[in-house]
Amino acid sequence: MKAKKSLGQNFLIDETIINNIVEQINANEDDLIIEIGPGRGALTKMLIGKKSHYIGYEIDNELIPILKKFVGNKIVIKNQDFLASDLTNDIKNITYNKLFIVGNLPYYITTPIIEHIINSKIKFEKLVIMVQKEVANRFMASCGAKDYGYMTLYLKYYFDIFKVCDVSKFSFNPVPKVESSVLSFSIRKNRPIVDENKYFEFLKACFKQKRKTLKNNIGNIKFEKIKKILLKNNIMENVRAEEINEELFILLFNELNKNN
Known about the structure:
Structural class: alpha/beta
CATH class of the largest domain: Alpha Beta
Distance between the termini: 57 Å
Number of strands: 9
Order of helices and strands: EHEHEHEHEHEHHEEEHHHH
CATH superfamily of the largest domain: Vaccinia Virus protein VP39
Largest sheet: 7 strands, mixed
CATH topology of the largest domain: Rossmann fold
Shape: elongated
Number of helices: 11
């Protein structure tokens, strides 16, 4: 079965990496595992060994006959685009304890998939995904790093992220042009209390053009309202968004919205 470029398919064939991913999914018989894009079933056959409830979402019709061999009393394969799924509805009739989500994600839709999971508002124990290494660096970037940006802070708001391992491009068939990383996401406890939609809109504005200063990105009127907070924290007026950490962004956002 040849991989389809149109679906971003690169099949994981490295048993060591497969085992590293499966080890992160510490599920038991009372839990539920959701796999995004089972493909040929390299991960699937290991995951169902945990005897948990399992749902796999595979968009490629031609792979369904391969995956059907796994179907059983607790095993469901859906021939469906994960991005079109109604996760809340799909799991409502399953009695489970903890939920785990896992997948080797097509690089071009990594962010939409994560956003779909966030927007579904389902509670999960852990999300373990394979992403392009460059994207992983962006997700986990530290304040001041060149990869630090809106998406870093968006994900940091929701999750604690841990890098499981880096993955050589030769761990796949066909061999992609880029290296990959496996990341583990767990729900962040004690998130900042803010209006999420407004906060994310604010962050997007701050990072609108990364090489411009914060003042140029958000405009003079808004900047004047937060300037005293910057000065109080020994931050110069020509600061760029990439030089501001989450704690300070929360302070700036609250200052802008304290009378709203």
